Amino acid sequence: MMSDLSATDRDVSRETSERLSALEGLLRKWNPAVNLVSKESLKDARTRHIVDSQQLYTLAPRDFHRWVDLGSGGGFPGLVVAILAAEQNPEAEVILVESDQRKAAFLQQAARALGVKATVHAERIETLSPMKADVLSARALAALPALCRFAERHLEPGGVAIFPKGANHQAEIAEAQQSHDFSVSVLPSVTDKDAAILVLKKIKAR
Ligand SMILES: C[S@@+](CC[C@H](N)C(=O)[O-])C[C@H]1O[C@@H](n2cnc3c(N)ncnc32)[C@H](O)[C@@H]1O
């Protein structure tokens, strides 16, 4: 595990830092009942979930209008994005999509308790009408070809997709290039030396 003292963690206001800590508290409280994240990952929740999500925010345009996080689970990265946007881009919309009703209830209640704006869609991505996002994210949801299909439907032309991926990311890129054209930047993760963050633009089916 690499350092959790990334620049992203230092450069937030006290209120934002308190909200991030409160999210960690809510995660620990709800996790035994709802299984939001693996029990093992809670030992290092700040790095594994919060800092891991914060680093994605820094890769998006600062003045994004609508960020859609697909398969948000316990709120990673979606709730962290909503917390950071409350300070840095308060007019922006943050939309979380989560089909598991209990997890969606957690997301709704957590956003309210944290005092941040987030819209939760408790339904399957496949049944949503096009979301017109200018930033789309998904962590641990699906392989890259499937994420590209979601992006085709939900990302505006000119938008950016941010997908954190594991050690297998190069193979996933090669597979996705069979079905889609896109530009991709492969960036290192500050929380896991084997992981990468893929930033895709101009995603189009071949
Ligand atoms: C492995 S979890 C990852 C959760 C979170 N993004 C994270 O990284 O901690 C994947 C989540 O996506 C949700 N999910 C899976 N398929 C979905 C779909 N088709 N539509 C909406 N949510 C979906 C699951 O319920 C689950 O909470």
From TrEMBL:
Classification via Pfam families: GidB (PF02527)
Keywords: Cytoplasm, Methyltransferase, rRNA processing, S-adenosyl-L-methionine, Transferase
Domain of life of the source: Bacteria
Enzyme Commission designation: 2.1.1.170
Lineage of the organism: Bacteria, Pseudomonadati, Pseudomonadota, Alphaproteobacteria, Rhodobacterales
Record has rRNA processing as a keyword: yes
Protein's name according to its UniProt entry: Ribosomal RNA small subunit methyltransferase G
Role summary: Specifically methylates the N7 position of guanine in position 527 of 16S rRNA.
Catalytic activity: guanosine(527) in 16S rRNA + S-adenosyl-L-methionine = N(7)-methylguanosine(527) in 16S rRNA + S-adenosyl-L-homocysteine
Protein family (similarity comment): Belongs to the methyltransferase superfamily. RNA methyltransferase RsmG family.
Record-level GO cellular component terms: cytosol
NCBIfam families (alphabetical): rsmG_gidB
InterPro entries xref list: rRNA_ssu_MeTfrase_G, SAM-dependent_MTases_sf
Compartments, record wording: Cytoplasm
Encoding gene per record: rsmG
GO molecular function: rRNA (guanine-N7-)-methyltransferase activity
Chain residues that bind S-adenosyl-L-methionine: 71, 76, 125-126, 139
